[in-house]
Amino acid sequence: MMNDMIADAITRIRNAALRKLDVTTLLHSNTVVGLLSVLEKKEYINSFKVIDGKNNKKTIQVVLKYNDNEICVINEIKRVSKPGRRVYKNSKDIKTFKNGYGTIIISTNKGVIANDEAFDANVGGEVLCTVW
Known about the structure:
Low-confidence stretches: none
Number of strands: 8
CATH architecture: 2-Layer Sandwich
Number of helices: 3
């Protein structure tokens, strides 16, 4: 049984990027889908799609994005809030990350959104991960 689906998804993306794989497969959860939609919107990944498997087990196929030198666009992706230690931020504390070059992904009552959207909407929440 897996306790932290988000950490598993982040680790699989990081490992696939280190091995320079084009596609990786993640386990499905609605929070992971929200996280991937933010990554796609911020152009850290090319695309993703949910695939129905055997016994109603869904998986997510993620196509990673590389630059012209075949280096992954994601320099670092790190889990912040963990099951043993939850990290929450209010809207004033999540304005920028890495001087605007990075993104903080936050789970709010309006869904999983990026830090700039959360600041504009004046909502805070649980900090899932940071990407740059």
